[in-house]
Design goal:
- By secondary structure, this protein is α+β, with helices and mostly antiparallel strands.
- It has two domains: 121 residues, Probable inorganic polyphosphate/atp-NAD kinase, domain 1 (Rossmann fold); 136 residues, Tumour Suppressor Smad4 (Sandwich), CATH 2.60.200.
- It has eight helices and 18 strands.
- The strands form three sheets. It has a seven-stranded mixed sheet, sandwiched between helices.
- α6 packs antiparallel against α7.
Length: 279
Amino acid sequence: MTYRPTRPALICNNQSGSYDEARVEQIAALCRDAGSPLAANFCLPDDALPTRAWLESKGIDTAIIWTGDGTINAAVAALAGWDGALLVLPGGTLNLLSKRLHDDRPLEDILADALAGRGRRECPPTVHCPAGRAMVNMIAGPTTIWAEVREQMRQRDIGGAAALIPEAFEQSMGGEAVHLAGDDRAFQAISMTPSAEGIVIDGLLADSPTLLLRHAIAWIGGDFRDGPSEELATRPSATVVSAESLGLLMDGESAEGGARVTFTIDPAPVAFIVTRPPA
């Protein structure tokens, strides 16, 4: 069934690399011209994410999210159970969730389709564990420290990134390897991506200086998928095991789990507007 926003709010982040005040004004103008003017504008980090109760009290039926995947993840957690819908627009570095929901299309085209009622509501699959959920990707293992290096680079803190690099190399080479329960193959990290078929599981390889360098370049460049990996399985659930607590990355945001963590495929707790053609 198609869905048309009538009373939307905008969530953006002025720390995002693609943030542009003119772009915010353009989004507002497109909504206004389509007969669905913005009822509110939340600009992180100056503003807090809206709560489900606040949106319901104002009669807002759609949250337009123009940020990166990490902020989208936080919005999903904040708005779990809301009967409205999230419209994700490309506003980050990789825009992986936007591409999954709308294909690789310009912001203007996605927004025009949604405002014209050419989208539909879906609760896409996510990877879930006790520490949280990932809309795009979950990673477990010691090499997740490279995400901190990447964040320092994104913030243009070259000194901070340089200070972290020796620790990242040490943890990647000397940290406890991880493996799937029942599988003896060890990896420096295991990647889990949600799909309609289940969790797509890959082992990330960084156990030699050459592989580690390639892995580090992929992380700093913004997309671990460009690094060396081995496809393992696609399953409805997976248990990752280590000799010590697992470092986790959920859509690029850090968390920590125990030494044995089970991950499951789970529908998102809030609906999204999808404009790509049905499969």
